[in-house]
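Recall that a protein's primary structure is simply its ordered list of amino acids. Everything else, from secondary elements to tertiary packing, is in principle encoded there. The following example makes that idea concrete.
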Amino acid sequence: MIVKWPHTLFEEIQNIKDRKERVSYLKEHGNNFFTLTLLQMMWNKNVKLDLPKGKPPFHSPDLVAADEMPEITDQELKEILSPIGQCVVGNSVLKRVKKELLYIKILESMPHESAIIFIAAKDGNILTMKSKKYSKITKPLVEEAFPEIFPAD
């Protein structure tokens, strides 16, 4: 299955006026490993990464326009993100420096704008991004689209 990079998906959702249509679009196009992981990083209180706040030093592969980045499958994204589980709080197998290096490797494997979203997600959520570019990607929207990714209160 070909999936959309987060920045592309979120930009498309931003342009949808009707909330119900946004939920439907997110369900249809965001139901993949990468997007669900990203959304959980943003708003699932049980997902905490043992990584420092802020933007780490990384080299963006985004030397071409983001829309010219190659298409990617859900399986390829799973391979990119597979080390993220090793970065969670409580994983004492890896030292923090190793976790940070894995995290930087993940960032360097995606388009720059998606990496910025990933950093914002790690730090809390994308609504804290300076430009508020993705203001329509909210926790209530995500909860409606994917209630299963949130713990029962």
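The radius of gyration is 15 Å. The first helix runs from residue 6 to 14.
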